[in-house]
From TrEMBL:
It comes from Caenorhabditis remanei (Caenorhabditis vulgaris). Transmembrane segments: none annotated. One of its GO terms (biological process) is tissue development. Residues 429-474 form the Laminin EGF-like domain. InterPro entries: ABA-1_nematode, DVA-1_sf, EGF, Laminin/Netrin_ECM, LE_dom, LMN_ATRN_NET-like_EGF. Disulfide bonds join C446-C455, C458-C472. The keyword Disulfide bond applies. This is Laminin EGF-like domain-containing protein. Pfam families: EGF_laminin, EGF_LMN_ATRN, NPA. Keywords: Disulfide bond, Glycoprotein, Laminin EGF-like domain, Repeat, Signal. The keyword Calcium does not apply. PANTHER family: BASEMENT MEMBRANE-SPECIFIC HEPARAN SULFATE PROTEOGLYCAN CORE PROTEIN, NETRIN/LAMININ-RELATED.
């Protein structure tokens, strides 16, 4: 096209010289503009044929846009930022890049794998450090090892770090000392004693996780060569999981959204006429509409994210109690877990011990609606129809009952057949609070899934210990199978799996480790985790 245009211009000049000499100067004066136009056409072609956002912006520019979005939640500012960096880009391409930006991960997440070939390899773990791994954990690592071109030793180490971070506290306490020693020695060797002591003091002073990580980034920035810097970066990414110093952000719970869904949520957040509850209802709508792999990803992101969030802000024990209740299910379980969560939350908040209160409230709302599947309704065992609007604890319980759901009596009373609290029965009954009558010392009509002369055992298909006040919870096994407590591994195991399935909870296929898709799958996805 350009060659034909040049031929036409030369022909016009020849004609002007012969017949219209006064127009020659005019045509010559257009030459500069013609050249600029040709350059513009070339630039437009370049902008429309680039493959990705990273081809047009460097990592620092993308990082700045992510920081702006995280701080303001304003889509219009991101659009303006892209316009500044990509002046002259066609509208269609600009919208494509905007969607690509919302689908991309923040720089801080992606940084852990950059230039990994330059970093030294990590010190291997001793075999006794990994005895906690289940068959599912090992299978994930095995698959990564088979893809050597995609995964370095640091990637494998980070996956192990993720697995360990989500273990139940009762398992972690047995291995914490080994992993702490590993991290302490690795970091001391590369950043030195003075820098390590500074970080240690910040942790002991309970400084914010973000401040500790920023200090660490500053320290490794002063290391002498890039190999040391990248090696320290990798060790830092792993060890912050061991030290449990990961920041918990509301955005982490929404990483499963599609670019268009994120765009819609961001628009709602900045709309002054849209309240928070409407935003969370829209999230819940997106979650319910997801299917297939997208649904699995969303469920895993929210389940693990909420458990990590609850453990981080409100304690490991509460996180484990809530997860056990959630998995066990049953009438009113979502209300019970929500009450547990919010009572503890407001206890800590009123003591002034929670930083970033608004961010925490946002994450709590997502976890309440999706992770706990709680819609705000009251379940008070027929003894009340109102709940505290903040903690969701039942109010004005009848019959002298108390508890989050009007489910029990004060210590010196027992529930009678009419559902009221009355004077305790003869202690010789020893019914562990699961029966209201006994004949000749034998408890009658044991309740709450208990059996035995003294309601001291759990019924078939349930596990727990009524003698120690532990409720009988439904076994996490397919087809209502029986389970038992393994005193060696401290885990609940299914006694008998359906044909073709293996694993502690029948979660794996004998041939391909394919998860067993039943009601038990919700617990096998996060085996022994928080």
């Amino acid at each position: 096209m350009n060659s034909k245009f040049d031929q036409f211009r030369e022909a016009a000049l020849d004609l002007a010289v012969d017949s219209f000499p006064e127009s020659v100067d005019c045509l010559d004066s257009c030459l500069d503009n013609i050249e600029k136009y040709k350059e513009y056409v070339k630039m437009g072609s370049r902008l429309t044929t680039k493959n990705s956002l990273s081809d047009l912006l460097d990592e620092d520019q993308i990082h700045q846009l992510h920081m702006l979005m995280d701080k303001t939640k304003r889509v219009d500012l991101i659009e303006k930022g892209l316009h500044q960096h990509l002046h002259g880009i066609p509208e269609k391409r600009r919208q494509e890049l905007l969607s690509e930006f919302f689908a991309s991960k923040p720089y801080r997440v992606r940084r852990s794998t950059i230039s990994r070939t330059i970093a030294r390899e990590p010190t291997p773990f001793s075999p006794d450090m990994l005895l906690w791994q289940t068959p599912r954990h090992k299978n994930v690592i095995l698959k990564q090892k088979r893809e050597k071109s995609k995964n370095s030793p640091w990637d494998l180490m980070n996956t192990i770090g993720d697995q360990y971070y989500h273990l139940r506290k009762s398992i972690r306490v047995k291995y914490d000392s080994k992993f702490m020693k590993y991290c302490n020695e690795s970091l001391l060797a590369i950043i030195g004693n003075d820098s390590f002591t500074q970080l240690e003091a910040m942790v002991q002073d309970s400084e914010q996780v973000e401040h500790i990580w920023n200090k660490y980034q500053q320290i490794i920035g002063y290391l002498k060569n890039e190999e040391d810097q990248l090696t320290a970066e990798h060790y830092g990414q792993f060890c912050r999981k061991i030290y449990r110093l990961l920041p918990i952000e509301q955005a982490d719970l929404m990483s499963w959204l599609s670019p268009s869904q994120r765009f819609r949520i961001a628009e709602m957040i900045q709309d002054p006429d849209v309240n928070d509850s409407q935003v969370y209802e829209k999230l819940y709508e997106f979650f319910n509409k997801a299917s297939g792999d997208a649904k699995d990803e969303a469920d895993e992101v929210i389940t693990l994210g909420c458990r990590k969030f609850i453990a981080h802000h409100l304690g490991d024990q509460l996180a484990e109690d809530i997860e056990d209740l959630r998995v066990a299910g049953g009438a009113g379980s979502s209300h019970h877990t929500a009450a547990l969560l919010f009572v503890k939350h407001y206890e800590i908040a009123e003591a002034g011990e929670l930083a970033h209160q608004k961010r925490i409230d946002e994450s709590l709302s997502i976890c309440k609606r999706i992770y706990l599947d709680y819609d705000g309704s009251c379940y008070c065992n027929g003894r009340s129809d109102s709940c505290d609007p903040k903690t969701f604890v039942c109010q004005n319980c009848t019959g002298g009952t108390v508890g989050y759901q009007c489910e029990k009596c004060p210590d010196d009373l027992r529930l009678d057949k009419s559902g009221n609290c009355s004077v305790a029965l003869d202690l010789q009954c020893f019914c562990h609070n699961h029966a209201s009558e006994c004949i000749d010392g034998v408890c009658q009509e044991c309740e709450n899934n208990t059996v035995g002369d003294h309601c001291e055992l759990c019924d078939v298909g349930y596990f727990g210990d009524p003698t120690k006040g532990r409720e009988c919870t439904k076994c996490p096994c397919p087809k209502n199978g029986e389970c038992s407590y393994n005193t060696v591994s401290n885990r609940i195991e299914c006694n008998d799996c359906p044909k073709g399935h293996i694993g502690e909870r029948c979660e794996d296929s004998e041939s391909s480790y394919r998860p067993f898709t039943t009601e038990a799958s919700t617990i096998t996805l996060v085996d022994n985790q928080l």
